[in-house]
Amino acid sequence: MKRFLIVLAALAALPAWAERNALPTGMPAAYQSECGSCHTPFPPGLLSAADWKATMAGLEDHFGTDASLDAKSAGAISAWLETNASRRIQAAGKPPRLTTTAWFKREHREVPTKAWQDSRVKSAANCAACHRGADQGRYGEREIDIPGIGRWED
Ligand code: HEC
Ligand code: HEC
């Protein structure tokens, strides 16, 4: 039984955020230079296609800023986001936030409250504060380093 549980635990840990690049191939350069200029270039796989569509349709009034783009870049970004969107993650609110999904909350349930409140983090959307490879799409545990807490490896 114990051995079985160990195997199960290993399988559960496998799904490979460690090896996976969260910014899949085909990423338009404008995704990094535009969407990545104010915040982390978020992983397309953490929102549904409908929510990416809603996000891209509302860029003129985007969380208190104007993030609108030329039509060509916007079209390329939308297509890439929707192709690589999650088919499992459900609607993420209005406006959509990947940080409010059940997936995100479950994945981060062990992160202590004081980490979210640290002045170097400020917002859960500030992925790169803890995920040091986030700007390059890397979320593996080896690159998690939380301000005020330190490295996170179990
Ligand atoms: C001018 C600055 C700016 C640009 C450019 C920008 N954003 Fe944002 N975005 C913001 C701000 C501000 C927030 C809110 C951040 C927070 O709550 O900490 C945000 C939040 C988001 C969120 C929700 C994050 C969460 O909490 O889960 C998504 C999704 C998002 N942006 C997508 C995009 C996409 C896609 C692009 C490119 C087409 C883009 N953004 C370009 C400023 C910008
Ligand atoms: C306050 C620090 C912090 C912030 C901010 C944060 N995370 Fe995390 N994240 C963690 C920790 C710690 C874990 C590992 C949780 C565990 O193992 O129980 C994690 C796990 C993950 C994982 C799974 C990694 C794996 O190997 O299973 C992904 C993907 C992820 N986060 C994405 C994001 C994204 C995207 C953002 C921003 C929208 C974000 N995180 C913001 C601390 C943070």
From TrEMBL:
Please state the span of the N-terminal signal peptide per the UniProt entry. 1-18
Which organism is this entry from? Parasulfuritortus cantonensis
Work out whether the entry's keyword set contains Signal: yes
Q: Does the keyword Signal apply?
A: yes
What this protein is called in its record is: Cytochrome C
Its keywords, alphabetically, are: Signal
Where does the source fall among the domains of life? Bacteria
